[in-house]
Write a structure and sequence with these properties.
The protein contains 6 helices and no strands. Helix 2 packs parallel to helix 5. The chain is elongated and about 50 Å long.
């Protein structure tokens, strides 16, 4: 693993992590897909499958592992944001 890191330019893993985190956080656009006709689980499953396929095509194993972990963190962040701003969570304020 140290040999792979020595060949990569400095900061490339950080840029990769940031880019894939933001790609995962694009789950915030999922409500727009439901307006386009994709419903609930189907839209979410297609989103996750498409995201995984894109990352698998773009990156090979050492970088793919970094990309998929950062993307998962972004996905969880986006889902948490969606849940915190949903109508039901704000109903107790009046």
């Amino acid at each position: 693993m140290a040999g792979c890191a020595a060949r990569a330019p400095p900061g490339s893993e950080a840029r990769l992590s940031l880019a894939t985190f933001l790609l995962g956080a694009s789950v915030l656009a999922l409500p727009l897909l439901t307006r386009a006709g994709l419903q609930g689980r189907t839209g979410l499953a297609l989103y996750v499958a498409g995201l995984n396929a894109l990352l698998l095509l773009l990156y090979r194993p050492p970088r793919y592992q970094i990309a998929i972990r950062a993307c998962f963190l972004g996905f969880v962040f986006g889902c948490g944001t969606l849940l915190s701003f949903s109508q039901s969570s704000w109903s107790h304020f009046g």
